[in-house]
Amino acid sequence: SKNLSSLPDIQKLKQLCKSISALELIMEQEWEIRYYSYNPSWDVDEEVFEMNVPNMKTKEEALSYLADKLISKGIVKESYKQAIIDREHVFPTGLQFEAYGIAIPHTDVEHVNKEQMALMTLKEAVSFYQMGTNDVEVPVRVIFMLALKEAHSQLTMLQQLMEVLQDKDIMERILSMDENTPNSEIKEVLALKNIK
């Protein structure tokens, strides 16, 4: 279809597919005869962890890539991607620590469906501007993208995040993870500083 606007909303389509496969599971007990497959772990693991991602050349590419992951899971609205890129241009979020550069992009609550923090590490650093400047570059390999539903939750999340960022051991573990690292291990590391 050339008219993408005629396609159903991603979340509604996912829910419909899950409903059909759940119905078929009830109606047809024999696996081989079923047309749809039902996965009982659907929606259990909604975290967005993208580790050691290669071939990112600019901050815009990295932000788009991670925002698309959040959009595909229905965590944020389609408008989130452009809003986060626009906000990064006006209010940079790069931070330089002793051994690593990180960024904490976020945007307004109206672009968010569900509260979430996405984590991405990059194989090669991309340049972000230092928070509070528009001319000091920070080579960033770790991006914590925030999707917050309420403005006041930003402070709590940032406080927890700062504890992670200032802990060299945790950051070294995060930077050593790759695409084969299970989500459970990443969650375990973040939980050390009460990030769930």
Query: Total number of helical segments?
Result: 6
The poorly predicted ranges are none
Across the major sheet, the strand order is 1-4-5-3-2
What is the residue-averaged pLDDT? 84
Please compute the radius of gyration using only Cα atoms. 19 Å
Question: How much β-strand is present in the residues?
Answer: 15-25%
> How many β-strand stretches?
5
Structural category: alpha/beta
The biggest beta sheet is recorded as: 5 strands, mixed
Order of helices and strands: HEHHEEEEHHH
User: Helix content range of the residues, please?
Assistant: 25-40%
Give the N-terminus to C-terminus distance in angstroms: 39 Å
Which outline best applies? globular
Q: Can you characterise this structure?
A:
The protein has helices at residues 10-27, 59-72, 80-90, 153-165, 168-176, 183-191, and strands at 49-53, 94-96, 101-103, 116-129, 137-147. It has a five-stranded mixed β-sheet with strand order 1-4-5-3-2. The radius of gyration is 19 Å and the shape is globular. The longest helix is centred in the first third of the chain and has 18 residues, at 10-27. The model has no long low-confidence stretch (mean pLDDT 84). Helix content is 38%, strand content 18%. The chain is an alpha/beta fold and 196 residues long.
